[in-house]
Write a structure and sequence with these properties.
Shape: rod-shaped
Structural class: mainly alpha
Number of strands: 0
Distance between the termini: 67 Å
Strand content: under 5%
Order of helices and strands: HHH
Number of domains: 2
Length: 71
């Protein structure tokens, strides 16, 4: 009887630790909306803004330099 209770308790602890690991792993996922765009994506978006007239050539060059230099 004691052995059966001990095994049940051990299985409960193992199950709980495995489940908490899954919850932690799922909790650490970054939603797609919260991820920073890659440098390539930022440069592409910047070029599109220039091409559409939203930015002047001078504004484009300044913003591009800041992105590439990481500022």
């Amino acid at each position: 009887m004691k052995m059966k209770l001990w095994i049940t308790a051990l299985l409960a602890v193992i199950s709980a630790s495995m489940l908490s690991g899954c919850v932690v792993a799922l909790g650490n996922r970054v939603p797609a909306d919260d991820r920073k765009p890659t440098l390539g994506k930022q440069l592409t978006d910047l070029k599109q803004a220039r091409d559409s007239g939203a930015l002047t050539e001078e504004e484009y060059q300044i913003a591009k330099k800041r992105l590439v230099e990481g500022k």
